[in-house]
Write a structure and sequence with these properties.
The protein is mainly α and 169 residues long. 48% of the residues lie in helices and 0% in strands. The protein is flat, with a radius of gyration of 34 Å.
Length: 169
């Protein structure tokens, strides 16, 4: 049996080589971008737009526009920098509440909410009022049960918080 295999081995190798060449030709034929050498410029130096595609008018207008005049002698105009709202020393880490990330903490801080006790004391009317201010985060207060979480955190009941809402990483 080893004689039959050794006799067929050259044919198997030739077949594999032909298969590899056929796959390479097929892959090359199906390439989306084809490099056409016309001798006008090195292939990598040519621009696709030079081959007949219309250039974007807006971009060309920006390129052709005169540069803006700059007066180097004028004094710089002071730009007011908004200061972040002061955070009271008793501010809690609101990110411990599930569903409350840094963006929402900032947004709540702008609304004056900085502690678990404030959230725990929210009534249904407060939830509606603040929920309306959350923009794309609307509905998170109820869905993620912020008030219930805040009540447990205000009470310092870490075990009940972890049992009900899981541990924070």
């Amino acid at each position: 049996m080893s004689l039959d295999f050794s006799a067929a081995l050259p044919l198997i190798l030739v077949g594999l080589a032909l298969l590899a060449v056929a796959l390479w030709l097929l892959a090359r034929r199906n390439r989306k971008a084809k490099v056409v050498e016309d001798g006008s410029a090195p292939a990598l130096a040519r621009d696709v737009l030079d081959e007949g595609a219309e250039k974007a008018r807006r971009n060309q207008a920006l390129i052709d526009a005169a540069p803006a005049a700059v007066n180097v002698m004028a004094e710089p105009v002071p730009v007011p920098v908004p200061m972040p709202a002061p955070v009271p020393a008793a501010a809690d880490d609101l990110t411990r509440i599930k569903g409350l990330g840094p963006k929402l903490v900032t947004l709540l801080g702008e609304l004056g909410v900085t502690s678990y006790a404030q959230i725990a004391a929210w009534s249904d009317a407060d939830v509606e009022r603040i929920d309306a201010e959350l923009g794309r985060f609307k509905g998170r207060i109820t869905r993620d049960q912020w008030v219930a979480q805040a009540k447990l955190l205000t009470a310092g009941d870490e075990a009940a918080f972890a049992d009900t809402f899981g541990r924070n990483g």
